[in-house]
Design a protein that fits this description.
Chain lengths: 403, 386
């Protein structure tokens, strides 16, 4: 047993660090570090930079343009990226639809879509949840009826993330209703420019537009956009989930948030002293840090087992999702609390990185106050999305504990 | 990076598992805990044969040159088997302390004896008014013509009744909580002026309070630097804490296995109680807790022997605080999920719970170590002075 990275892994880390140092644009770095509003252009620009370096999709196999990274290398990359203030890459394209395409799509589909994903040319979003189908996803009702060379798609998807920017959406649709719910689902790729699609913003409690309702009104989708076999979509969806859930401990993001929390608590004053000298508050930071220390090792244990046994991550990633999401929520909450009454103002414009604060607002307030309260509200999503904590516990109960 | 135990470590665990199944089942353990000695002398001899008692010592002193992870592998099984023998006191704490700080002559005299199962030593470092502070030493050491005279009290000296020697802290200068001025003495069990008040502990072991009145000590029985022994004692206790963390990890694994088995077999309302979601989710929380506990036990197994005190103590306190809190959760839930069976003496679940509880109360509880970890965090943020 040893916790050391190999020499090769250490030199890879140095390479990643040097690359980030040289190539990560300063404006993007500031937005991430100060939790400011991120725009489509920021994420696409960063994806294109990574693509030029050959790291557009590090974990993809080389034959699809990836770098064949091991899970440990991907972890190092994620950790360094978070520390440097790089934004996360778009998971819907790279980690979700792409693995499904690689395993189940036709060569023509692979050749068309994968290069456009890795180069940052296409923006993908996900069409899974529906108003009546959240955790019980298999009850979904958006229908796709085959009519000659097309499917006609009608229905509504919801909780769609960043679909307002999307070129494509991958959807689970119902192609048969006279079998068990799981057996009548297909996996369809839909061009967001198709007539009949309406995107309606959903504003979340932080006041931001991140998610959407998407309506499909008799949308014509070419039959060649079906992935794999009709009515086998549930299998592909489950396969996708196992990829989505790798690296969802979010260790790098948590570490960055912890560091910022300590900075804020050191700068904020409490009875004329740095807040961090108040043991009641500091102990709360310490407790989250302990949880994170343990999770970092638990995460590495899972990654290490996966890579040594050459297998896909199993249900143990549910543990990582549960703990990682709880930790980032606690950190966001403590950041907000560290601000004291400076947490109260809501200044929508202050989320822009080039916002110049009015002279009467204190310096420290300009530096970090406005986004953090919103981030606390926004991060309530983390224990709900991608399989809620309760669903993850069901998975652990059934698949690990055998209950 | 590799989190697997080696072939040798796995084989050692297998051996211990077979030993527990054959010679140390729960009924046997219960009767040993009630016996006058409080543990199995026969088991102690078997550990010596297996090389466990010399595991962390260099080969030249009759040991196997084992690592912190080797100790972890053993302690996980000590936990699962609820083994009562004074392994942590003699082998990890005192033997480890002698290995790190004693003269070559003392090491040659004592370590092979420990490894052969012929000698036991207990650490007498805590005092009643000092709570968990090792620097709180009111017992005095006064020089005389032949060496030293020790006077004072030591409380809850674990495994003292069966010990042949004590490693005992006493002060020859400074006020009672100063870090400087503390020396460490090797004291014979039968030294004149030393009396013991022995008792059982809550988790089945034995301990004693020590009373010293002008106990004469030879000059060559001072271990480490005179008046500057605190770092040596702290380092030994840190290694003891790492061992207890691994023991807790082993217990939590065993408790979860027992609880899961109960959920799958106990029937109420015409079905197994493990089919109820409220209980499933509790069990999932216990599973998560056990994995996190094991991660912390790994961190300290690797870092407990570190030479850099601040970094070592940070890791030790992190693990002890986290495991104290988290293992309490698992222990309490295991009792709860067993219903009334969880609180009866004849089932091992309650005994695992008690042992976990006493581990938290030993060498600093969760609050004590959280405060130490939190203080390190403060120093890191604003510097040593405030």
């Amino acid at each position: 047993m040893n916790l050391n990275y190999t020499l090769a892994e250490e030199s890879f880390r140095a390479e990643v660090r040097a690359f980030l140092e040289a190539e990560l644009p300063a404006d993007i770095r500031s937005k991430v570090r100060l939790a400011r509003r991120m725009h489509k252009d920021d994420l696409v620009r960063w994806q294109k930079i990574l693509y030029r370096r050959g790291w557009g999709a590090g974990m993809w196999p080389r034959r699809f343009g990836g770098a064949d990274w091991s899970v440990v290398e991907q972890h190092i990359f994620d950790e360094e990226s978070a520390a440097a203030g790089a934004p996360p890459q778009l998971a819907f394209a790279l980690r979700m639809v792409a693995p499904v395409l690689m395993s189940f799509a036709t060569a023509a589909q692979q050749n068309y879509f994968l290069p456009r994903i890795i180069s940052g040319e296409d923006w993908w979003c996900q069409g899974y949840s529906e108003p009546g189908s959240g955790s019980d996803l298999a009850s979904l009702r958006t229908s796709a009826v085959r009519e000659g060379a097309h499917y006609r798609v009608t229905g509504q998807k919801t909780w769609n993330t960043l679909g307002q920017h999307a070129d494509w959406i991958f959807c689970l649709v119902r192609t048969s209703s006279d079998v068990r719910p799981q057996q009548g689902i297909s996996f369809l790729l839909i061009d967001m420019k198709s007539p009949g699609i309406t995107v309606r913003p959903i504003i979340t409690i932080d006041g931001e537009h991140e998610i959407n309702d998407i309506f499909f009104d008799n949308v014509q989708v070419p039959a060649e956009n079906l992935v794999g076999e009709e009515n086998k979509g549930w299998t592909y969806a489950k396969f996708l989930l196992s990829h989505e859930r790798t690296n969802n401990a979010g260790i790098g993001n948590c570490k960055r948030a912890l560091k910022r929390l300590k900075e804020i608590a050191t700068r904020q004053l409490h009875n004329g002293r740095p807040l961090i000298e108040d043991s009641r508050f500091r102990d709360r930071i310490a407790q989250v840090e302990l949880e994170l220390m343990a999770l970092e090792i638990t995460n590495l244990r899972v990654l290490s087992a996966v890579s040594k046994e050459s297998r896909a991550p199993g249900p143990e990633v549910s543990l990582l999702k549960i703990k990682g999401s709880e930790i980032i929520q606690q950190l966001a909450e403590l950041q907000m609390h560290a601000l004291g009454h400076d947490a109260l103002p809501y200044l929508r414009e202050a989320l822009e990185v080039d916002w110049v604060p009015p002279p009467l607002l204190a310096d420290h307030y300009a530096a970090f106050a406005p986004p953090l309260t919103g981030q606390y509200f926004n991060y309530r999503k983390t224990t709900i999305y991608a399989g809620s904590t309760e669903i993850q516990k069901n998975i652990i109960s059934k698949l690990i504990l055998g209950l | 990076m590799d989190f697997r135990l080696t072939e040798e470590q796995l084989a050692l665990q297998d051996t211990l598992r077979r030993f527990i199944a054959k010679d140390y089942d729960f009924e046997r353990r219960r009767s040993l805990a009630r016996s006058p000695l409080g543990y199995s002398a026969q088991a102690w001899a078997q550990y010596a044969e297996l090389g466990l008692l010399g595991l962390p010592y260099p080969e030249e002193f009759g040991g196997l040159g084992g690592s912190g992870v080797d100790i972890m592998a053993v302690m996980e099984l000590v936990g699962q088997g609820l083994l009562l023998e004074p392994y942590v006191s003699t082998v990890v704490l005192c033997g480890g302390l002698l290995r790190d700080a004693a003269t070559r002559a003392i090491k040659e005299a004592l370590l092979p004896q420990i490894a052969a199962g012929k000698l036991q030593i207990a650490l007498a470092a805590y005092e009643a008014a000092g709570r968990y502070e090792l620097a709180h030493v009111a017992a005095t050491a006064v020089r005389d013509a032949n060496g030293w005279r020790l006077t004072g009290r030591k409380s809850v000296v674990l495994d003292a009744p069966s010990a042949d020697y004590f490693l005992l802290s006493a002060r020859s200068s400074g006020s009672r909580t100063d870090a400087e001025g503390i020396s460490l003495f090797l004291v014979r069990r039968d030294a004149p002026g030393l009396t013991l008040q022995a008792y059982a502990t809550q988790s089945g072991g034995r301990a004693a309070d020590l009373h010293l009145q002008d106990v004469p000590i030879d000059e060559d029985a001072v271990i480490g630097a005179p008046e500057r022994a605190l770092p040596v004692i702290e380092r030994a206790v840190d290694q003891g804490i790492a061992a207890l963390c691994a023991e807790a990890a082993g217990i939590v694994t065993a408790l979860n296995e027992a609880t899961l088995n109960y959920l799958k077999t106990r029937k109420q309302f015409g079905t197994v109680i493990g089919s109820f979601q409220a209980l499933q989710h509790r069990m999932a929380d216990m599973f998560i807790a056990a994995e996190q506990i094991r991660s912390m036990a790994i961190i300290v197994a690797i870092q407990a022997a570190g030479d850099e005190p601040a970094a070592r103590r940070r890791a030790i306190s992190a693990a002890k605080a986290y495991i104290g809190e988290t293992a309490r959760f698992v222990g309490q839930q295991a009792v709860q999920l067993h219903g009334a069976m969880g609180v009866v003496d004849e089932l091992n679940v309650g005994h695992y719970f008690k042992r976990l509880t006493m581990i938290d109360m030993t060498f600093g509880d969760a609050d004590h170590h959280l405060a130490r970890f939190s203080e390190a965090l403060r120093v890191e943020a604003v510097g040593a002075t405030s």
